Amino acid sequence: MLGRQQQSDKPKYIVIGLGEAMTSTWYPVIDYDACINDLACVDFCPHGVFEVSGGKPVVAHPENCVEFCRGCQKGACPADAISYPPDLLLQRRP
């Protein structure tokens, strides 16, 4: 039936286009299950995006991240624990 949403266990998503999303949401995301806490990302990033909290790296200043840089992901993290949003982002609806 059109106009009616079905209940589902799957989350609802909206797609945000490239131009709109990248300027406000480009920042590294740390996979703490994969992270080995060597803090290479903290030492590597010249923009001050990362800080150490409780012995772990955290994305403390995402606004400092340079769009499309990926330096910490490709040049610093030996555990491949850093990722970035894809070109078209999926975000949960409120």
Number of strands: 6
Mean pLDDT: 74
CATH class of the domain at 27-84: Alpha Beta
Cα gyration radius (Å): 16 Å
The low-confidence parts are: 1-23
Question: How many strands, what sense, and barrel or not for the largest sheet?
Answer: 2 strands, antiparallel
Tally the helices: what do you get?
Answer: 3
Please give the share of residues in helix: 10-25%
Spatial order of the strands in the main sheet?
A: 1-6
Shape: globular
Structural class: alpha+beta
What order do the SSEs take from the amino end to the carboxyl end, as H and E?
A: EHEHEEHEE
Give a quick summary of the entry:
This protein has 94 residues and is of the alpha+beta class.
Could you walk me through the main structural features you see in this protein, from its secondary elements to its overall organization?
The protein is α+β, with helices and mostly antiparallel strands and 94 residues long. It has a domain at 27-84: Alpha-Beta Plaits (2-Layer Sandwich). It is 20% helix and 21% strand. The chain is built from 3 helices and 6 strands. It has helices at 18-25, 40-44, 71-76; strands at 13-16, 29-30, 50-53, 56-59, 82-83, 89-92. The strands form 3 sheets. It has a two-stranded antiparallel ribbon with strand order 1-6. Strand 3 (50-53) and strand 4 (56-59) form a beta hairpin. The chain is globular.
